[in-house]
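Chondramide synthase cmdD
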Amino acid sequence: MVSGWMIYIVQSRPITTLYPLPEKSDDQLRVYMSAGHQQMMTEPIYPLGMSFFEFMNYEVITAGGRLFIDLTHDLASPIGRKIGLKTMGKNDPLMYHALFNLLKRKQLIKSLPKGKRIFKLGSEELSWSLLVHAIKVYQRKDHSLVKQLIAKSEDSIKTVQSEITNKSGDELFAFIIEDQKQLKRDMFDPRSLGVIMTAMITAYRINKNMEKWLGEKNAADTLSQSVPNNVTSEMGLALLDVSDVVRKYPEVIAYFEKMENGDIFDELPKLEGGEAVRDSMQAFLDKYGMRCSGEIDITKTRWSEQPSLLVPVILNNIQNFEPNARIAKFEKGLLEAKAKEGNLLKRLENLPKGKKKAKKTKKMICVLRNYIGYREYPKYNWIFRMFVYKRALMKEAAKLVEKGIINEKEDVYCLSFEEFRNAVRTSQLDYKIIAERKESYEYFETLTPPRLMTSEGEVIFGEYNMENVPEGALAGIPVSSGMIEGRARVIMKMEDAEIEKGDILVTAFTDPSWTPLFVSLQGLVTEVGGMMTHGAVIAREYGLPAVVGVESATKEIKDGQRIRINGTEGYVEILDETD
């Protein structure tokens, strides 16, 4: 700043954040990466929810009610830096460029302490044995493998449901700790991860080859529409069937339109058609009721706990679709995928060595369509199992309420797993802890977590390559090809959604619970996400152009504005009404 002949330096150090910093046991510099941006969950998480990440052996660090990963030792190691950059490059370009910018600061990197790394080739997720399994999966092309894995997972869930039934008190907590080992075995089953890796590598190879041979970008997007065994996209279509039952009964529709939050199943039997609607919704909830927005946090309210959360989506479906839309929508995607396959193979055959290229591509398309849907299943298994735990734990919470130890069942969310266990064991608890943590949570809700920060409070920013982005457009990650214009609906909570057919959803992030909305959309924009995160995967299967990782999208785009999204190049344009 200049005043007269004097020059004042008002900021001579990197910008720091007011975001709370993680606690650390030494004075050495640390670098923290937001895990929430990788998990599609940037909202704060209560202590009980944090405990379940610790069970999965995540190196959990908390700050501002969010999960962070300490990357210090990775960045201090040459191989750790390479693996970290490669991993982030696939998932989150902004995180990648933030890390890249940090790595330019040689003195800072030299000052970082060495130690055990998070990302390493010997870990379960990145082991060479996983690559071997992926190669075997590709070569064998076993169409029954996915069904075998799903059956095994369902048997595992049935087992834990049966075994937990008679557990209570400290025995319940011990059972959950022990069962986490089985959950980990399921989550990191090499055959399961091999299928997912095979699908991802195959999609990458198809896209690379088609762009090289035919000049066509992201061909795998259309080829991934209406694939079998995608438990998440099937959920969106299944709710269309529920909506078809509801649409038959005007009295139920009128009740849904005026209802407030409550137990809708108490009222439905009193209405004409109410029992049929209740049975249809219950069948849906039996399979998908453990889902909800922010579902990786065990404390979030599940659809089974509050079925009224589904009512806005059901009403949207009735308004936006004709009866039997499930069949029509699935068949449309299937026809588009088959047409794209035929078009690609025909064009390939006209190239030099075309028959060989077409044969190779046909096999890859077959592998892609057989395996890509399974990518959503391990998380379904994880969330289902978490809900089994939750129902048992909330019975213990109810007992604490009866004893006057807590005021309401949900108070236990403010306790860690071990604190909850100790309260059950001793029937004692200092309630001030609950009050203080509720107050902290309310404060944490007002914060926006940074992607990357140091223990000194400096936020490290990344940026997009703006080479192919029009002036004034918002840059992001292209995850599902196509260009579309439409009305933006800026929505932060799924239950608040009022969607008309052809709208473009603009939100902070999506998880599987948002899938039922996708059937009405024609495009998607999110602030957080990557190529293989939920919104991207489902957008490709439903054939919706999508751009994710658009910073401040929910602030820059106003609800009701017309926007144009380019899911091939990765940008969003805000249009004038006359554009």
